[in-house]
Design a protein that fits this description.
Radius of gyration: 15 Å
Strand content: 5-15%
Helix content: 40-55%
Number of strands: 2
Strand order of the largest sheet: 1-2
Number of domains: 1
Distance between the termini: 33 Å
């Protein structure tokens, strides 16, 4: 069992228990382990993530940039909650939802200030949910 699998199991236990408030703490760790964004000692590493993740076209130096989810973590949790309340939740569906919507990028602090904390209202009504909608709305190009 890999570290990513362990984090995924943590997420699954929280989903099964409907402890939605606890999911966010495992999301970035799961993503980092899944995409090998770890230190030499195999720990989640913000510096490795910041150096490796896709970044805004305005970034010239990643050292002072911030990591931001494409889809806010609260929105990802909300999607999982909706699937669960509809009675459609399974380990595979949770994994697929995370693999689809859990993505991180690097942006400047100025861009973060322009970014809304949630997805545009129209995003929730759309059948296909474009990952870049929030960033496009703020004029941020990755």
């Amino acid at each position: 069992m890999t570290d990513a699998d362990i984090e995924l199991q943590h997420l699954w236990l929280e989903v099964q228990a409907e402890r939605w408030q606890n999911l966010s703490r495992f999301l970035f760790s799961y993503y980092c382990y899944k995409h090998n964004l770890v230190s030499k000692t195999n720990k989640v590493c913000w510096e490795t993530a910041r150096a490796s993740l896709p970044c805004s076209k305005t970034i010239t130096e990643r050292k002072h940039a911030v990591i931001e989810p494409l889809i806010p973590e609260d929105t990802v949790v909300g999607l999982l909650k909706t699937i669960s309340k509809d009675g459609d939740m399974s380990f595979e569906i949770m994994t697929s939802t995370l693999d689809t919507f859990l993505r991180y990028v690097v942006i400047s602090k100025q861009e973060k200030a322009q970014l809304k904390p949630n997805m545009p209202a129209s995003w929730y009504q759309q059948e296909s949910k474009p990952l870049m909608a929030r960033f496009e709305h703020a004029g941020i190009v990755i």
